[in-house]
C-alpha cells in the first residue's frame, strides 16, 4: 500500500483515508468506513496542535473495529509546527517503541505517521472515555493521588538507571533545552515583576530572583543519574481514572513531553500542579513514601 498523505487538519480526513490508515496497521481487515462525524477536543486548552474525536460508521462491520478514535494533528501554523515536530515525533516513537513494554496503561495507537520534510504528523488513538478524566482545577481524591503516585513509581522503576534508556537516542534529556528555558524565564520574569511585583510577598520575589539565573543549572542537576523515562506533563488533565475496582485503574495520555531525567521531576510536577499548597504540605511526604515503597 502506498504511503498515506498526512492530513494537515481534521477537516482533510475522509472515510476512505480512515479505512486505509486502519487497514495499514491491521486494526481492521474487512471493515470499510462508510461515514464518520468529527468534533474538536480541547478547545481553549491545547496550543500546539489539533485534536478531534471521530465517530465511525462502517459499511461492513468487523469485530474489534473501533467505533471512535481520537486524532492528533500537528499545528496549522507552520512555524509552530516546525518548532513542535520533535515533540510530535517523540510521542509517535513512544507509542511504537516504549508503550508496549511498560506496566502502565496508555491509549492504543491505531495509526501514526510523521513527515520531517513538512513537520506534519498524525496519531489515531484509542478514544478514552472522558467520564473519568482528571481535571487540574477540580483536583482529585486521596485515593486517586495514591493511584497516580504508585503507577508512576512502577513506570519509573521499569527504566530506573537502565542502559536500555540510552538505546532511545531520540528521547531528549531533561536538560536538552536548559539554556533556552533560562532565557525565556528571565524575559518573562522581567515582564511579570514589572507588572505585578508590588503584589508579591518579599519571600517569593527573593526565591524567584535566585531562580532566574539557575534554570539551566537545575535542569542539569535533574539530568544526573539515576535517570529514568519521564512523562514530562504528569498532571490530572492527562490522567484518566477508572471507576472503583476497575481494571486498569488509570490510563495516561499525552506523551509529547516524554524525556530522560530523575524521577523526582515527575513527582514534583504532579504535586505542584494538582494539589492545593496547604493540602500538599500535609500529604506530600506520605505520597513520596508511597512512591518509594
Low-confidence stretches: none
| Overall pLDDT level | 91
Number of strands: 9
- What is the string of SSEs from the N terminus onward? HEEEHEEHHHHEEEEHH
- Molecular shape: globular
Q: What fraction of the residues are assigned to beta strands by DSSP?
A: 15-25%
Number of DSSP helical runs: 8
Describe the strand arrangement of the main beta sheet, using strand numbers: 1-2-3-5-4
Oligomeric form of this entry?
single chain
Instruction: Please tell me how large the radius of gyration is.
Output: 21 Å
Topology:
Elements: H1 15-24, E1 32-40, E2 49-60, E3 68-74, H2 78-98, E4 109-115, E5 120-126, H3 142-158, H4 178-196, H5 202-211, H6 215-222, E6 228-230, E7 239-241, E8 250-252, E9 259-261, H7 264-274, H8 277-292
Antiparallel strand pairs: 1-2, 2-3, 3-5, 4-5, 6-9, 7-8
Describe the protein in words:
It is a single chain. With 293 residues, this protein is α+β, with helices and mostly antiparallel strands. It contains 8 helices and 9 strands. Strands 1-2-3-5-4 form a 5-stranded antiparallel β-sheet, with helices on both faces. β2 and β3 form a beta hairpin. The longest helix has 21 residues, at 78-98. The chain is globular, with a radius of gyration of 21 Å. The chain starts with 14 loop residues before the first helix and ends with a helix. The model has no long low-confidence stretch (mean pLDDT 91).
Amino acid at each position: 500500500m502506498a504511503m498515506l498523505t498526512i492530513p494537515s487538519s481534521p477537516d482533510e480526513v475522509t472515510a476512505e483515508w480512515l479505512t486505509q490508515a486502519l487497514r495499514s496497521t491491521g486494526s481492521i481487515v474487512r471493515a470499510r468506513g462508510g461515514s464518520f462525524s468529527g468534533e474538536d477536543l480541547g478547545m481553549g486548552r491545547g496550543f500546539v496542535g489539533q485534536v478531534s474525536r471521530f465517530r465511525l460508521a462502517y459499511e461492513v462491520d468487523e469485530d474489534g473495529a473501533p467505533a471512535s478514535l481520537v486524532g492528533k494533528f500537528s499545528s496549522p501554523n507552520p512555524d509552530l509546527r516546525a518548532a513542535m515536530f520533535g515533540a510530535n515525533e517523540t510521542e509517535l516513537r513512544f507509542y511504537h517503541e516504549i508503550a508496549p513494554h511498560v506496566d502502565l496503561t496508555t491509549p492504543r495507537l491505531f495509526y501514526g505517521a510523521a513527515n520531517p520534510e513538512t513537520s506534519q504528523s498524525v496519531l489515531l488513538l484509542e478514544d478514552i472515555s472522558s467520564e473519568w478524566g482528571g481535571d487540574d482545577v477540580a483536583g482529585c481524591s486521596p485515593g486517586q493521588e495514591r493511584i497516580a503516585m504508585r503507577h508512576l513509581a512502577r513506570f519509573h522503576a521499569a527504566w530506573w538507571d537502565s542502559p536500555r534508556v540510552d538505546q532511545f537516542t531520540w528521547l531528549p534529556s531533561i536538560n536538552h533545552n536548559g539554556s533556552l528555558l533560562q532565557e525565556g524565564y528571565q524575559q518573562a520574569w522581567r515582564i511579570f515583576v514589572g507588572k505585578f511585583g508590588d503584589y508579591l510577598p518579599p519571600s517569593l520575589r527573593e526565591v524567584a530572583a535566585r531562580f532566574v539565573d539557575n534554570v539551566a543549572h537545575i535542569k542539569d542537576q535533574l539530568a544526573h543519574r539515576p535517570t529514568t523515562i519521564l512523562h514530562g506533563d504528569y498532571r490530572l488533565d492527562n490522567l484518566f481514572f477508572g471507576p472503583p475496582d476497575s481494571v486498569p485503574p488509570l490510563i495516561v495520555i499525552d506523551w509529547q513531553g516524554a524525556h530522560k531525567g530523575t524521577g523526582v521531576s515527575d513527582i514534583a510536577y504532579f504535586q505542584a500542579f494538582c494539589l492545593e499548597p496547604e493540602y500538599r504540605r500535609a500529604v506530600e511526604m506520605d505520597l513520596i513514601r508511597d512512591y518509594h515503597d
